[in-house]
UniProtKB/TrEMBL annotation, chain A:
Protein's recorded name: Pyruvate dehydrogenase E1 component subunit beta
Span of the signal peptide: none
EC number annotated for this UniProt entry: 1.2.4.1
GO function term, MF aspect, one: metal ion binding
Domain Transketolase-like pyrimidine-binding: 21-196
Organism of origin: Amphiprion ocellaris (Clown anemonefish)
Cellular component GO terms, alphabetical: mitochondrion; pyruvate dehydrogenase complex
Catalytic reaction equation(s): N(6)-[(R)-lipoyl]-L-lysyl-[protein] + pyruvate + H(+) = N(6)-[(R)-S(8)-acetyldihydrolipoyl]-L-lysyl-[protein] + CO2
Gene: PDHB
Subcellular location, principal: mitochondrion
Automatic annotation (TrEMBL), chain B:
Database matches in Pfam families: E1_dh
Cofactor(s), by name: thiamine diphosphate
Keyword Cell membrane: no
Keyword Lipid biosynthesis: no
Leader sequence segment: none
Superkingdom of the organism of origin: Eukaryota
Cross-referenced InterPro entries: DH_E1, PDH_E1_Alpha_Subunit, THDP-binding
Keywords of this entry: Oxidoreductase, Thiamine pyrophosphate, Transit peptide
Record's protein name: Dehydrogenase E1 component domain-containing protein
Length: 347, 333
């Protein structure tokens, strides 16, 4: 009846077009869509196929795409990373998963010397369109050998692109761009974010949704101070900003999204507005992402707009301890960010 | 106890040999005292691991936890044939070796719960426990290239090294058939001789280890020892362990090949000990494990002052940056 159809239409219009998707599912969607779009794309790594992924990021993909596209490897990082690089050189588009980036150290020669430098060494003759992905940084209670952040290590190297998403839109859009990029990309995920749901716009849910590599995003506008971060700590910055707003301090929060190439222009534009800068990362302080930001700001036009030195909030300069109380004090907490903002603003 | 048989001889499974004319003996002698000691060691490891399972499920232990139950005969048998001054290193499934190498149950469980009474003062956790002549506990394992590099150098320089493979049939969720072109791991040393051993029989492991140790100590160079064993738990506490193997398979190993049951039945059927004696040992071990768990749950966490200590060894104190430039922390060796 016409009344029923009117009622139904009104009800359907009330359904939100945005929906909540976990970072894990967003990554899964990205890989699913790219596997479908381009038959040269394939995924290899430990437990990615029959186990559905150590952290279930590749759940369902082996069932859908089979042995040729989703490949379980033996526990041989140096070996399978090398095989993946060779496949990329020969024309395929591999996604090479490291169960965590700590294990990538077993294979780092392949990432740096075989993947990153080859385009340069061959004067552009040989491309290496590969994505190395996996969880990076601290988890919960996994101790010293399983908690390191590799953003600074990989971002140090010319020839590599280094991407570090925060929320689900970042994860999906950036992974799709990384897979479509013809260069080696190190894609740093975060295990603690896998299960976190974020709103994803209707646009982000489409199969052609990509986010450009090398462009940061202003997650929150503010006028008093700029906070720059990547990955999980973007969330911490937003939480700190909410607390500070109650005291009348308005923070501008920038989500780097890409570590290399770094979008310094976005940071500079913000600093020219706020005159104060705090960087926030989980990695160690020495030679880190924050250190690089400080140097670049100092070298560029925004330096003259600073009213105080840049403050870096980082992990403590120690191997990650196991005991919970020690681990909690080894990483930036929201109160550390709030403290640093106030010190930087001298309030 | 005068009625008990003081010593008996048991048939043990023949070891498969690679590049060896002779192997370990086919019979093992066991004294009553030795039997009770091996039983106690294996049962202690078993109960300790099951306690760790319980504490993990209660979220008192966090992070990674790779349990050893099912594999007890390996650690116990090896320790029975080596000296405390020999050097041993292992991967992440390390709790059993941590115990056999001399660390108390208390210190192991307190390390798992992250307390200051733990063997690494709570800073290492499950995969990073150490003792004199025991080099841990290591979280990341290169399973191919580095191993063969080690084989080469050990053979080249005739190093007295036993390369032990605890073959529990699965690398996390992947069966050996899906991960290895050859599953005859005892042959993978190629030019290095090897033996394949029944890793569920503590006497077999003991005799094989004695044979391997003699081989090394006599200057013949390295040797590979593959212990065929089984883990009842999944790869770690986050792996249920039943998506890549059947419950029937696990149950079959428990009923037919459990290392502790096998030793107990051997001793009972040869009148080497009584059922009551084993019960007493079980009760005593249960009590010890319970006390250790009590300690592990009540001992305080390490103090914050310890956060930055032990970065360097034998080094003057240094200042360590905290999470922000105004946080200056202290580190002593």
């Amino acid at each position: 009846s016409p009344l029923f159809h009117k009622f139904l239409k009104e009800a359907l219009n009330k359904v939100p077009k945005d929906k909540c998707v976990t970072v894990r599912d967003a990554l899964n969607q990205a890989m699913d869509e790219e596997l479908e779009r381009d038959e040269r794309v394939f995924l290899l790594g430990e437990e990615v196929a029959q186990y559905d992924g150590a952290y279930k990021v590749s759940r369902g993909l082996w069932k859908k795409y089979g042995d040729k596209r989703i490949i379980d490897t033996p526990i041989s990082e140096m070996g399978f990373a090398g095989i993946a690089v060779g496949a990329a050189m020969a024309g395929l588009r591999p996604i090479c998963e490291f169960m965590t980036f700590n294990f990538s150290m077993q294979a780092i020669d392949q990432v740096i010397n075989s993947a990153a430098k080859t385009c340069y060494m061959s004067a552009g003759l040989q491309a290496v369109p590969i994505v190395f992905r996996g969880p990076n940084g601290a988890s919960a209670g996994v101790a010293a050998q399983h908690s390191q952040c590799f953003a600074a290590w990989y971002a140090h190297c010319p020839g590599l692109k280094v991407v570090s998403p925060w929320n689900s839109e970042d994860a999906k859009g950036l992974l799709k761009s990384s897979i479509r990029d013809d260069n080696p990309v190190v894609f740093l995920e975060n295990e603690l974010l896998y299960g976190v749901p974020f709103e994803m716009s209707e646009e982000a849910q489409s199969k052609d949704f990509t986010i450009p590599i090398g462009k940061a995003k202003v997650e929150r506008a503010g006028s008093h101070i700029t906070l720059v971060s990547h990955s999980r700590y973007v969330g911490h910055c937003l939480d700190a900003a909410a607390v500070l707003a109650k005291e009348g301090i308005e923070c501008e929060v920038i989500n780097l999204r890409t570590i290399r190439p770094m979008d310094v222009e976005s940071i500079e534009a913000s600093v020219m507005k706020t005159n104060h800068l705090v960087t926030v990362e989980g990695g160690w302080p020495q030679f880190g992402v924050g250190a690089e930001i400080c140097a670049r700001i100092m070298e560029g036009s925004a330096f003259n707009y600073l009213d105080s030195p840049v403050t870096r909030v980082t992990g403590v300069d120690i191997p990650m301890p196991y005991a919970k109380i020690l681990e909690d004090h080894s990483l930036p907490q929201i109160k550390d960010i709030i403290f640093s903002v106030k010190k930087t603003l001298n309030v | 106890f005068a009625d008990f048989t003081p010593q008996a001889t048991f048939d043990i499974k023949k070891c498969d040999l690679h590049r060896l004319e002779e192997g370990p003996p086919l019979k093992a002698e066991l004294t009553r005292d030795q039997g009770l000691q091996y039983y106690r060691t294996m049962q202690t490891v078993r109960r300790m691991e099951l306690k760790a399972d319980q504490l993990y499920k209660q979220k008192i232990i966090r992070g990674f936890c790779h349990l050893y139950d099912g594999q007890e005969a390996c650690a116990a048998g090896i320790e029975a044939s080596i000296n405390p001054t020999d050097h041993l290193i292992t991967a992440y499934r390390a709790h059993g070796y941590t115990y056999t190498r001399g660390v108390s149950i208390k210190e192991i469980l307190a390390e798992l719960t992250g307390r200051k009474g733990g063997v690494a003062k709570g800073k290492g956790g499950s995969m990073h426990m150490y003792a004199p002549h025991f080099y841990g506990g290591n979280g990341i394992v290169g399973a191919q290239g580095q191993l063969f590099e080690s084989f080469n150098m050990a053979a080249l320089w005739k190093l007295p090294c036993i390369f032990i493979c605890e073959n529990n049939k699965y690398g996390m969720g992947t069966s050996v058939e899906r991960a290895s072109a050859s599953i005859d791991y005892y042959k993978r040393g190629d030019f290095i001789p090897g033996i394949r051993v029944d890793g569920m029989d503590v006497l077999c492991v003991r005799e094989a280890t004695k044979f391997a140790a003699d081989h090394c100590r006599s200057g013949k160079g390295p040797i590979v020892m593959e212990l065929q064993t089984y883990r009842y738990h999944g790869h770690s506490m986050s792996d249920p362990g039943v998506s890549y193997r059947t419950r029937e398979e696990i149950q079959e190993v428990r009923t037919k090949s459990d290392p502790i049951s096998m030793l107990k039945e051997r001793m009972l059927s040869n009148n080497m000990a009584s059922v009551e004696e084993f019960k007493e040992i079980d009760v005593d071990i249960r009590k010890q494990v319970e006390e250790a768990a009590q300690f592990a749950t009540s001992d305080p966490e390490p103090p914050l002052e310890d956060l930055c200590n032990h970065i360097f060894y034998n080094n003057p104190p240094l200042e360590v940056r905290g999470t922000n430039p105004w946080s200056k922390l202290k580190s002593v060796s």
